[in-house]
Amino acid sequence: xxxxxxxxxxxxxxxxxxxxxxxxxxxxxxxxxxxxxxxxxxxxxxxxxxxxxxxxxxxxxxxxxxxxxxxxxxxxxxxxxxxxxxxxxxxxxxxxxxxxxxxxxxxxxxxxxxxxxxxxxxxxxxxxxxxxxxxxxxxxxxxxxxxxxxxxxxxxxxxxxxxxxxxxxxxxxxxxxxxxxxxxxxxxxxxxxxxxxxxxxxxxxxxxxxxxxxxxxxxxxxxxxxxxxxxxxxxxxxxxxxxxxxxxxxxxxxxxxxxxxxxxxx
Length: 266
What we know:
By secondary structure, the protein is of the alpha+beta class. Helix content is 47%, strand content 20%. Strands 1-2-9-4-7-10 form a six-stranded antiparallel β-sheet. A four-stranded antiparallel β-sheet has the order 3-8-5-6. The protein is globular and about 50 Å long.
C-alpha cells in the first residue's frame, strides 16, 4: 500500500496524488481545487452530491472545488487510483467558460479513456521529474477534454433563490472566519435563517454540516502551508485554527491518508 504526492515548484496550481493497493476509504471531505481522478485497479463506491455511484476500473471522476465527496473501495481488492488537483484560478484564467467544470462529472468507456491518457501523461511527467512544459501540456489537454465532456451534460436545477442566498452568506462567513471559533448563533445571524433550517439546508446543499465544512477549510489551509515547507508543524496547526496538535494530526491523517509530516516531505 502506498500514497505519493508530487509537486513542481514552477507550477504552483497543480498537485498529483498516486494511490496503489489502497483498501481504506476516505471520509467525507472536499478540496479547494478541481479534483480529477482515474480508477486504475479494482472499484470503489463514491459518494458525492447526495448520490452514490460505483466507479469501476478505468472510470473517470471530476469533483468541482468545495464539493464534499467520499469513497469506499472494495475490501481487499488492492484499489489504486491517480488524482490531479488543479487550481480553479488557473483554469478560469484561460477557459472561455469555466462553469461546466463547476459540476461533478462521472464517465467511463471511451470518454474516460480520452481523459485517462492525459492524466497518465501528467502523472508520468510529475513522478519522473519532467520539465514544467512536459507536465503542463497534458494538464491543459485534460482540462479541455473535461470541458467538452462536462459542457455536454445538463446543468442541475438551482434551489430557490432566497435559500441559495442565505446559504451563500453562511458559507462566506465560514470562509472568512474558519480559523476562529464559529458558533451557530453567528451563522444564524449571517444567513438570516434559523439554525435548524440552516443546518438542514447546509447538509443538503454542501453534503456536510457546518462544523465539518469548517474543518475541511482548516485542513486545506494546512495542506497548502505544508507543501510550501516554510513553517514548523506546530505553527501551521495553530495558524489553521487547531489549538491541539494531536487533534490536528489525527484529523489530517483521517482525511488525507498520510500524516502531516509525511505529506510535507513528499
